[in-house]
Amino acid sequence: MIKVFKMLIIKREVCGYCGACVSVCPEGALELVDAYLTVDPETCIECGICSKICPLGALEVKNAE
Amino acid sequence: MQSNYNVLIIGGGPGGAMAGKAVVDAGLSCCIIEKRPAIGAPVRCAEGVGHEISELVDLDPKWISSKINGAQLVAPDGQILELNPEMAGNEVGYVLDRKIFDRELVWKAANAGCDVFVKSRASSAIIKNGKVCGAIIETGGKTLEVHADVVIAADGVESKFARWCGIDTTVPVAEIETCVQYLMTNLDIDPGLNSFYLGREVAPEGYVWIFSKGERTANVGIGISGKMCRDGKRPKDYLDAFIAEHLPNGKIIELIVGGVSACKPLECTVADGLIIVGDAARLSDPITGGGIINAMYTGKLAGEVAAECIASGDCSKKALMKYDVAWRDSKMGRGLKRNYQVKEIFIKLKDEKLNSIVNSVNKLDMEIFDTKYLIRELVKYNPWLLKDIGTLRRLLD
């Protein structure tokens, strides 16, 4: 069986740096640092909740290459 | 930045600023840190407040973009419910200019003796024997340890500090309102009137607002439930469709995005050495999404309680609970509880039922308007409200 690795992609040119995603992240993996958004890949469980609620559609869970 | 303060405040919004002022007014040392390079910018707010803001601060005309004399609610079928000043009560107030307002509140704290640092952020909490004792602060490429008797977390909807202290602050997906707003000009609007548009097609489990920012200018925004949000159905998609239909000649001069929690407040808003205020404590109004006044009120209260507890030498959770108990028992706390129940009813209503409610409210005698009268009359015309929803029965008691 092949295990597919997923990861959260932040589209920086789409992101409005509002922090709505940070508030819904169940793991505390996202953080709004000054005026940019970061994800801690070690903590992120790729659940896609942030991607669902983003006002602009700036987050995407993708299969890692 | 000193390595020791009586109180360290994370976040320089209205909650943090009011807390800072209250702490230094009590004669203690205090520092506000703000992660952004400027106080008040970027704006992430529709900027509307009720007139009761004047109970917390002396209003300065230069903070006010527009004075609001009335509001209108537009039902899904286009019926308009006019809320005039006599009946709209608290809903009549001001649209602020947050870029100026936030800065002036911080100035007031700074002028009273509070330290302020911008582009400085907390990267973790300092916790000793289970008590919050300060924060690790990143500023200008340096990492500092700042100790405090009490830390006040005023870090907004994207709050991390309370989580670092072991408190689960996660907002449920169905209870985040995901929002987009444009500052628009070239609009033919009444500068004294705010408008709210309801309906599944317009804004599922939310609303579109037009908040006047003065002549021909307004904040035009939308919030929808996170549950209803997905590709092609994001708040921006709904807002662009609304503007194409209702405000085709408007020009967009600013894009604002944000999240507003519509959940219950945190179960407990204090811990040993920690107080949580405003949006960070999930204290925005579940119906309107308004959070400025709640943040200011809890910020001020937090500063006062922190100062008292520091003076008495006990900053334990038990001592700081005075803050939690006080806001829950306040007009604001009771209002939040009631509005959460009302929100739970309204998000389930189908458009036809909303239309029916607006239609029956339009038949009411506005001279004797009060909440109980409103609910009683609503039930008279819409008996299904009681059948469908037991909560309304409790609100009538």
From TrEMBL, chain B:
Where's the FAD-binding domain?
5-37
The organism of origin for this protein: Methanogenium marinum
Q: Which Pfam families match?
A: FAD_binding_3 (PF01494), GGR_cat (PF22578)
UniProt name for this protein: Digeranylgeranylglycerophospholipid reductase
Q: What does this protein do?
A: Is involved in the reduction of 2,3-digeranylgeranylglycerophospholipids (unsaturated archaeols) into 2,3-diphytanylglycerophospholipids (saturated archaeols) in the biosynthesis of archaeal membrane lipids. Catalyzes the formation of archaetidic acid (2,3-di-O-phytanyl-sn-glyceryl phosphate) from 2,3-di-O-geranylgeranylglyceryl phosphate (DGGGP) via the hydrogenation of each double bond of the isoprenoid chains.
Alphabetically, the GO molecular function entries are: FAD binding; geranylgeranyl reductase activity; oxidoreductase activity, acting on the CH-CH group of donors, iron-sulfur protein as acceptor; oxidoreductase activity, acting on the CH-CH group of donors, NAD or NADP as acceptor
**InterPro entries, alphabetized:** DGGGPL_reductase (IPR023590), FAD-bd (IPR002938), FAD/NAD-bd_sf (IPR036188), Geranylgeranyl_Rdtase_fam (IPR011777), Geranylgeranyl_reductase (IPR050407), GGR_cat (IPR054715)
State how the cofactor is bound: Binds 1 FAD per subunit.
Hey, which pathway is this one from? Membrane lipid metabolism; glycerophospholipid metabolism
What EC number is given for this enzyme? Answer: 1.3.7.11
Output the GO biological process annotations, alphabetical, semicolon-separated.
Answer: glycerophospholipid biosynthetic process; membrane lipid biosynthetic process
A single GO cellular-component term from the record reads: membrane
